[in-house]
Specification:
about 110 residues; mainly alpha; Multidrug-efflux Transporter Regulator, Chain: A, Domain 2
């Protein structure tokens, strides 16, 4: 099953329906992922969700973890947090600075 990573769009923000179409997911699944905190949209004053096109890669990663490894969405959230932390630590090591200490996201 192919996952759309980024469609060549010049739009700064995508509506929920446009983002769902670009990601090839149902808008209700996208709302569920937002409610679970896996995707973090901008919410305007009318309560509408707006997404950055760069979030397509986050959504694709979450779908691969869920569909490919059979992880439930709670586990997907933990894995995404851990992967983000690994990225931070690797960047700190590459730059020669000391990594920031922080408590795990699941505590």
């Amino acid at each position: 099953m192919p996952y759309t990573l980024v469609r060549s769009a010049k739009t700064a923000r995508l509506s929920l329906d446009a983002f769902a179409a670009d990601a090839d997911v149902h808008p209700e699944l996208l709302r569920r992922l937002v409610n679970l905190g896996l995707i973090d949209p901008y919410v305007d004053s009318a309560g509408q969700f707006w997404f950055s096109p760069t979030q397509l890669s986050t959504l694709a990663r979450a779908r691969r973890l869920h569909d490919g490894l059979g992880l439930n969405y709670a586990a997907v959230g933990i894995v995404l947090d851990l992967l983000a932390r690994i990225d931070e630590l690797e960047a700190a090591v590459r730059s020669g600075r000391r990594p920031a200490r922080r408590s795990p996201p699941w505590t």
